[in-house]
Design a protein that fits this description.
The protein is built from 7 helices and 10 strands. The protein is of the alpha/beta class. The protein has a 5-stranded mixed sheet with strand order 3-2-1-4-5, with helices on both faces. The chain has a 5-stranded mixed sheet with strand order 8-7-6-9-10, with helices on both faces. The longest helix has 28 residues.
């Protein structure tokens, strides 16, 4: 079995795959100050509760946007499962995705999302990764990575609004159910939640005009279940897209089963 690890700025998402089948998925807070022993103990507990034999996990694939955690997860993989973690980046499997159109360093999570979207949904495709930041990835009709967009994520926008305004309370991010708010809480939910859905639709429309065609739009990330159904241009909601990308990269590099 394969353990996949997507280390984000706020949350770390982990998944165990048996072939192409996701057996278990967990989320834990990202803590760059944690020790390998602490993380290993917590992960061992999760694996045990799920009834998974740690000895059955013989591969680990990861990506991280927090450089300080890379060494930590290498130690966890070696200590807990006796294997070296494969970290995905632009040089790990360059034949899976042509990223030459992007002039600067491209985050590993963005690369993995694009690889998964192309492999699972074909081209053209657009990924909306709705997490701490909202990342948009664009795969053109020719299957090449065209570029994308980055914006503050839903919770980041909410925190900025609440922290920058004296009298606004912290508010749960849920579907407000109406586009016209009858109290302050609902009004903020409309602005933040429906505003994000409308922003996704607007950006997808602009991207498709530039591509000259429509694309399959996939929502992933921590807020995909909230925004995906509210955005009119989302075709697929796939919370494990990044983990699937890590699986695809691992199997390609290590010569395992096909995606």
């Amino acid at each position: 079995m394969l353990l996949t690890i997507d280390v984000g700025n706020t949350q770390t998402v982990l998944g165990v795959y048996d072939g192409a089948n996701l057996v278990q998925m967990w989320r834990m807070g990202t803590d760059p100050q944690a020790t390998a022993d602490e993380v290993a103990a917590r992960l061992a507990g999760l694996v045990g509760i799920a009834g998974i034999d740690p000895a059955a996990i013989d591969g680990v694939a990861a990506d991280t946007v927090v450089p300080a955690t890379k060494r930590l997860w290498k130690q966890v993989a070696r200590g807990l499962f006796g294997t070296d973690a494969l970290f995905a980046d632009k040089d790990t499997a360059p034949d899976l995705l042509d990223v030459s159109a992007y002039a600067q360093t491209l985050g590993s999570d963005r690369i993995v999302d694009a690889i998964a979207a192309r492999a699972l949904y074909g081209a053209p495709a657009i990924v909306l990764d709705l997490g701490t930041a909202t990342n948009i990835e664009v795969i053109g009709p020719d299957g090449r990575y065209r570029g994308g967009a980055i914006a503050p994520g839903l919770q980041t926008s909410m925190n900025a609004l609440v922290n920058g305004t004296a009298q606004l309370p912290a508010i749960e991010l849920v579907d407000p159910g109406s586009a016209i708010g009858t109290d302050t809480v609902q009004a903020i939910q409309i602005g933040v939640v429906y505003g994000e859905a409308a922003r996704m639709d607007g950006l997808v429309a602009r991207i498709e005009r530039e591509l000259g065609c429509t694309a399959t739009v996939v929502a992933t990330g921590g807020f995909c279940h909230l925004i995906g159904p509210l955005a009119e241009r989302v075709d697929e909601v796939n919370p494990e897209l990044t983990l699937q990308g890590l699986r695809i990269v691992y199997e390609h590099v290590r010569g395992g089963r096909k995606a």
